[in-house]
Please model this.
Amino acid sequence: MLKRMDRNTLVFLAGSVFVILLVQVLISINVLNSFWLTILRIGGVMGIACLGLNLIYGFNGQFSLGQWGFFAIGAYAAADVTYRWVNDHSASGLVILTLGVLLTGLVFVLLGRQLAKIRGLDALSAFSLYLIAVIATGFLSVFLGQFLIAPVTGLINLLPAALGMQVVFFLAIIGAGLLAAEASFLLGLPVLTLGSDYFGIATLAITVIVKVLLDNSDTLFGFVEMKGARGMIGIPKIGSWLWVSIFLLATIVVVRNLLQSSYGRAIVSVREDEIAAKAMGIDVANFKTLSFVLGSLMAGVAGALYAHINGFLHPNTFNFIKSFDILIIVVFGGLGSVTGTVAAAFAWALVLEGFLRLWLPPGFETWRYVVYPLLLLLMMLLRPKGLFGGYELPFLRHSMPALRLKPATAAISNQAEPRPASAEAPSESTPGITLSQEDAQSSSEG
Model:
């Protein structure tokens, strides 16, 4: 396995593991207090969410402002699962979320195959059919879940308490990310037909809708534990540095591998020129959907981790003003730069929530919202391409494969090379020359 990895991959993975373990050691010996630990974890969470937005905006060219809405979906979905496990000692949230995600995904696949056979089906009609299927799947998941809650709860309780909590937490993160991805697929059906600024406005509306639904989650959907506009409390604070760093590292590797695949090249080609991409046979709509869904999946995972850092969620945290934070981070780090996005996410957390809070005089903490935009303004004036511009770490840098000549092409190129004057004439036993001489004789006889 190690022999197959190139030097850049080994250096990147070894360096990442070293940094993660170094920070963990500093935490263990209390060199990093809880304040700076929270800042680092928020930086990692924002890095995951911003990588998703960079995939949508930086690499695919879709100006999206809906990332924060899917971030909120992931946060509340995962928080509800762990809240029920800790406070109600029940896996009801985990069972229903898992069933809902799996059944909805299955319905999307089956329904998509049937709708693909219908020519000329408009986006709104497809959205209506998918929405009806999702509502039916939701009721079915709740009904079937009632028979599985007790067995699953008993199965997890067989594990040690700490391990069971970590298993529930991990499954909640995965389920929350998939839920955000499926929501983005559903909402993206009518929205992705729009272009340019209209797409940005429509995705901003998604964030506003999600925030309003969260304000009324206790009365409208019956999630009493979410407490609607009062905010959700009692969420276990188990979003450790190791969990955040592992998911961040996994996200970086996934984005890197995607971009260096044929799918990634197709995603980038849509950003460069949609007409040229269509002319080359690329299904632009499918690759727009792919990048939008994957980016929202990353946002959902980031939101799930964020919910378990502070142990408190409030709908005002996910208003449309906050949706500009991740957009600013992506532009600040450099559009289309994975390295710049991750570095800018940590810089945003350290500067805005860390250093400026400590350096500004007491009572002037809110002035960081004045200093921070001024720093951004200077950055955009002095370096408009972002913090890192087009630079990437060697592991993340895209390298084109070596050009392979076909045998016939290689033979022609070899024949085209000039022979030295001292070269001997080819012998009569050479198959190609023998055939040509025979052809010449036959042609002269003819």
Notes: Confidence is low (pLDDT under 50) at residues 419-446. The radius of gyration is 28 Å. Residues 123-157 form the longest helix (35 residues).
